[in-house]
Amino acid sequence: xxxxxxxxxxxxxxxxxxxxxxxxxxxxxxxxxxxNLGVMVSQEEFISAAIETDARAILVSSLYxxxxxxxxxxxxxxxxxxxxxILLYVGGNLVVGKTAFAEVEEKFLKMGYDRVFxxxxxxxxxxELLNEDLDSRPKGND
Amino acid sequence: MxxxxxxxxxxxxxxxxxxxxxxxxxxxxLEDGIAYQKxxxxxxxxxVAMRKASEAGITLLQPRAGVALIQDHIxxxxxxxxxxxxxxxxxxxxxxxxxxxxxxxxxGIEKSLQARTSLLNGFPAVNHGLIGCRQVTEAVxxxxxxxxxxxDARLLAEITLAGGFTSYEGGGISYNIPxxxxxxxxxxxxxxxxxxxxxxxxxxxxxHINREPFGPLTGTLVPPFVSHVVAIVEGILAxxxxxxxxxxxxxxxxxxxxxxxxxxxxKSLAHEFFKREGFSDYELTTVFHQWMGGFPEDEAKAFxxxxxxxxxxxxxxxxxxxxxxxxxxxxxxxxEANAQGLRCTRxxxxxxxxxxxxxxxxxxxxxxxxxxxxxxxxxxxxxxxNGDVETGVIAAFEAGVMDVPxxxxxxxxxxxxxxxxxxxxxxxxxxxxxxxxxxIMAYHRGKLEERAKAENRAVCFQMVTDDIYAISKGRLVxxxx
Lengths: 142, 481
Fold this sequence. Notes:
The complex is a heterodimer of chains A (142) and B (481). Chain A contains six helices and five strands, in the order βαβαβααβαβα. Chain A has 142 residues and is of the alpha/beta class. A five-stranded parallel sheet of chain A has the order 2-1-3-4-5, with helices on both faces. The radius of gyration of chain A is 14 Å and the shape is globular. Chain B has one domain: TIM Barrel (Alpha-Beta Barrel). Chain B is 50% helix and 9% strand. Chain B has helices at residues 8-18, 30-38, 46-56, 70-82, 95-98, 102-115, 125-138, 154-162, 185-204, 224-240, 256-276, 299-315, 335-352, 361-384, 389-399, 438-455, 461-470, and strands at residues 60-62, 89-92, 144-147, 167-169, 210-212, 245-251, 283-289, 320-322, 417-420, 426-430. In chain B, strands 1-8-7-6-5-4-3-2 form an eight-stranded parallel sheet. In chain B, strands 9-10 form a two-stranded antiparallel sheet.
């Protein structure tokens, strides 16, 4: 079975690099083909990388609090570029200040993200959900 | 005048260009800035406060804080002063301003107005301009500093110093390598020469401005010698431009003995290398950052991490401690949580301030180790630069002879891998191309083997990951579960 391509990166002007390096190692170990764009990635860079690598999921991180501004509109841009079926995951400290997770989750689900994670999520669980979501979703261009 | 000093012609030419990069810079007058600074009472001068703390042997408390709107920011700082009991105040700058994205910062201000809450993670000082900055600095009683993470901080420095701030954090290495992805080191060092020269000009006009290179770097398992080398090099670069008040920093590693040894060696090594560069006319103080890595989510546990950092800061004799909040795991704290961090720190600092901590025996050995490690890298830097530390440090980063763990910059080698030994000291597992002597590496390796044996597993990358998340999961050393 060929590995599933995924795109990983920290959005906006966020330079939190430690978790990003851990995520890359973890998802590679879990059998994915990871294109890690590193820190300070624009929405456009996420989308071009996803198109170039024929990725089935984009995993967006945001740690610095500007997630609300940086993440809005990514789903619409994906659709515009023909990535209707792509999975969008987002995780981290997504808003400024301590906020109930349910509130944050609702906000980002509304923006069109398929799954929303807090800073303390278990990576094993994320991989499990990702595999489930991939199984239940058409493969886009195939 | 030192041969390394930026000439007045170059300074003025750069100045005329950078003031044009955003409307709030236009027409900014250096003379007006100096005249304004002269009116600020001595009790509000950051450099004076640091010197006095050092002379009195006390540890001052400073939080981090910054929000999008001027009035909210003032309320936040006043709260930290009155309810938190902060000795020194910050103004933390938002991440868009740090990357010179003033247009995005403007959108952030607008959205914050609509949302009636800050959507920015700091105070966009460039957008608010000179008047906005003066409103802030005039509304507080304590000395106040600009804290940020800006590779090109020239316009921000012009506006905030003229705006009444008396201390400015950062440096050409410490605000590049951990804070951005694609800015060449040569460029950020050049741009920070301008900032340091600006501070030098204020000094020559009788205004003391404190400068603080950012100590903790990536805040993740940074061995003391790595951050010491950056602090010492940035100290030299600042002194070359006429800076007089320097505060060098170190981020808590977690093992008390290593942390105390680190702060002791930081000061003695800095004096040694500053002397070697021909400097004697400066004031050197130190800052200790409470744990900069991941925090436990449980606030009770977070208070324990804060309190431990406060305790070690005092025992290590730091002149200042940068305080975390119980909301750290979730990002930016509310003003109440921020003040709680300060009060928690105050209790520990007051309880320990009369203690003396004699460092001796095995612990003295750690001081000697850090000194050897720093000298090993510094000599490599001097060799690569044919005697010049600025050329040398750029070449050293390029070759990986100097390397910062987990940094985002593509101009950092990124091959060094640190991990904890069996007692929680931070050691080097993989040195990459680091300019460390073989016998130093053998010592590190030996210490890591002790841990591997105790944990019944080989020294491996998994240990690094375990160590990174250990404190947020309730321990110092990432033992196997």
